[in-house]
Design brief:
Pfam families: DUF2087. It comes from Streptomyces omiyaensis. The chain is α+β, with helices and mostly antiparallel strands. The protein has three helices and three strands. A hairpin with a 5-residue loop joins strand 2 and strand 3. The longest helix has 15 residues.
């Protein structure tokens, strides 16, 4: 038997109508949520304007600004210097926020 519980699926963070119940405080749970949101809301190779990012995030939670900030700080979305455009990162961040080693 493993001493570590298996990670819970992100599905339990959402209500039956698909709304996020709360943004997890625990970094590992939040990272799993952010990875899920990135996968389901944003396409590779597409540039999103800030209102588009906010509109997508508002479909799951009212605090879209916090989610957007977490996505950028966590490395899931990249933002232009002027903050006007966003795009999905090609490589998801390594667990724990560590930069992946160069191959």
């Amino acid at each position: 038997m493993s001493s570590h519980p298996s990670p819970r699926p992100v599905a339990d963070l959402f209500s039956a109508d698909g709304r996020l119940l709360a943004i997890p405080r625990r970094p590992a749970r939040r990272e799993a949520l952010l990875a899920h949101l990135t996968e389901t809301l944003f396409d590779f190779g597409r540039v999103y304007r800030e209102p588009e990012v906010d509109a997508a995030l508002k479909t799951v939670h009212d605090d879209h600004a916090a989610l957007r900030r977490y996505l950028v700080v966590g490395g899931f979305l990249a933002r232009t210097k002027d903050g006007s455009a966003y795009h999905r990162q090609q490589t998801p961040p390594a667990p724990g926020g560590a930069a992946p080693a160069a191959a």
